[in-house]
Amino acid sequence: MKDLNGLSSEEFLAALQVNFTVEDKGTDIYKPQQLHEFSLYLDQHWYSLKAKEGTYDNTDPIGVLDVDISSRLILDEILNIGDLRSSKRIDFVGGLRGLGELKRRVDSGEMRVALALYPVTMQQIMDIADSGKIMPPKATWFEPKLRSGLVIHKLS
Length: 156
Known about the structure:
Order of helices and strands: HEEEHHEH
Shape: globular
Strand order of the largest sheet: 1-3-2-4
Number of strands: 4
Strand content: 15-25%
Distance between the termini: 51 Å
Number of helices: 4
Radius of gyration: 17 Å
């Protein structure tokens, strides 16, 4: 994210504590360890954010996704970034580029804060498909990208 929506770092961290358990993990890169845990990089420190009970709905295949939790509770509520597809205040980094790339972009001043999510599970994808719903924006990242779609060639 390019800015903190006018908040200081301390105000931003305090706002996060309403819906998350926030723990300073120091200066070494910290990777989220489980569903509903996020890694946040701000001011050369990594933080663990764990979504509090009641901030997500385990019975809703979309509402239980970490991308939905972070979109609602961080991007929309705190940072006032409502449209992930068109906002110029946010950018996305693919999984292969890793947490080091998030750190680099914040340290360079290009971005103000970075957020890393635990990967979507195959069960979550299947639950959404079974419910007839579609994945929200930026919920999955597949690499390498196919250039022109899937091609099948019969070998025999």
